Each structure stands twice: as structure tokens, then as C-alpha cells.
Amino acid sequence: MSFKQKFLSAITLAFAFAAFTTVGMAQETQRQDGSVQKQGKFGKGGGFGKGMRGGKGMRGGMGMRGLQQLNLSDTQKEQIRGIMQANRTQNQGTHEEFRQIMQTRRSGGTLTAEQESRLQVIRQQMRQNAELNKQQIMALLTLEQRTQLEQIREQKRQKMQERKQNRGIRQSSQSEIN
Questions:
Q1: Where are the chain's structural domains?
Q2: What angle do CA 95, 98, 104 make, to 5 degrees?
Q3: Helix, strand or coil for residue 36?
Q4: Sign, CA torsion 52/122/140/86
Q5: φ, ψ for residue 57 (rounded to 5)?
Q6: With contact defined as beta carbons under 8 Å apart, do 111 and 98 qualify?
Q7: Angle at which helices 113-140 and 74-90 cross, to 10°
């Protein structure tokens, strides 16, 4: 291969690489309210996992997954957002305290008896708040939407059960091989 052919091949390869990498780079999109949102290759959140936890969709957290699949009216969506926002602001200090205690535990530190008992109290409060939040949201849904939500939950339970069974089968076959 001549020097000229090698040079042209290298330039072509560099150009192709540059063209393909720009497609995968983050893009900016303009929202209706005028703010700019980065959109990366993993979705609207701009990073891996943000769509699941950091997004502002109707995903809920407190056992309310599946709301996004319901045909909610705009009024229902606004009311649900209001309930979730009120719960979030009301419990912000509790969540921060919980994070700090858990960070201590994760970093290898030992918790005092007082911290352990406070952790239990915080967990109980979080469960109660989540249940109250869930009840308020369920009260907004129509009978048809509640039925549909229960069907979605049942489907997810079945899928989880199938995954557990498949995992057990794989693990038992792995132990037989070894």
C-alpha cells in the first residue's frame, strides 16, 4: 500500500470516527418553559439511571409504579404532582438525616445505639408517609384506573416470580457443573 493510500485511509477513518462520535454526544433540548435540558445517550435525564429515579415523570416511588401507564387526566396529574411534592418537602429533613446515618454505616463506621434507634424511627415514619401518600393518590383514581393499576402490579409480580425461578434454575445448573 502506498503512502498516499495509507494517508487517505487514515483521514477517512478519522472523519468517520468524528462523525459517529458526535451523534452519541449530549444534545440540548429546549423545554416549553424555556429552560434547556441535556439529553445524553441514555435518555432524557442525561445520564444512566436518571430516567428511573431522577426524572419528574409519574413514576412515583412509594409503590406507585405504573401510574405513567394509566390514562390520567391533566387534573389528576397535577393533583398527584402536588401530593408528591408536598410529601417530598415535608419529609426533606428526615430523608437527609436518614442519608447521613446510612452514609456513616456505608463508610465502615459503627452506629451508636442512639443512631440505630433513630434509624428505626425514621424508617417507620417513611413507611407511614409512603402509605399516606399512596392512599391520597389512590383516592384520586377512578375505579377503572385502580383496576388497571392492580393488573399492572400483578403482571410485574408475575415477571419478578419468573425471574426468580429462572435465576434459581441457572444457579442450580451452575452448581451441578462445578
A1: 71-158
A2: 145
A3: strand
A4: negative
A5: -75, -175
A6: no
A7: 160
Question: What are the phi and psi torsion angles at 33 (to 5°)?
Answer: -80, 0
pLDDT of residue 60: 40
Taking the CA atoms of 164, 167, 173 and 178 in sequence, report the sign of the dihedral they define.
negative
With H, G, I as helix, E, B as strand and everything else as coil, classify residue 84: helix
Q: How far apart are CA 159 and CA 155, in angstroms?
A: 6
Residue ranges of alpha helices (H) inside the chain are 3-24, 50-53, 74-90, 92-106, 113-140, 143-177
What amino acid occupies position 17? Answer: F
Question: d(Cα 42, Cα 24) in Å, to the nearest integer?
Answer: 10
Q: Which pLDDT tens digit goes with each residue over 12-56?
A: 777 776 666 655 554 555 555 555 555 444 444 444 344 444 444
Separation of alpha carbons 69 and 18, rounded Å: 39
Q: How many residues does the chain have?
A: 178
Q: How many other C-beta atoms are found inside a 10 Å radius of the C-beta of residue 169? A: 10
Place of cell 429552560: 35
Query: Helix, strand or coil for residue 121?
Result: helix
Those residues whose C-beta lies under 8 Å from the C-beta of residue 13, and which sit 6 or more positions away, are none
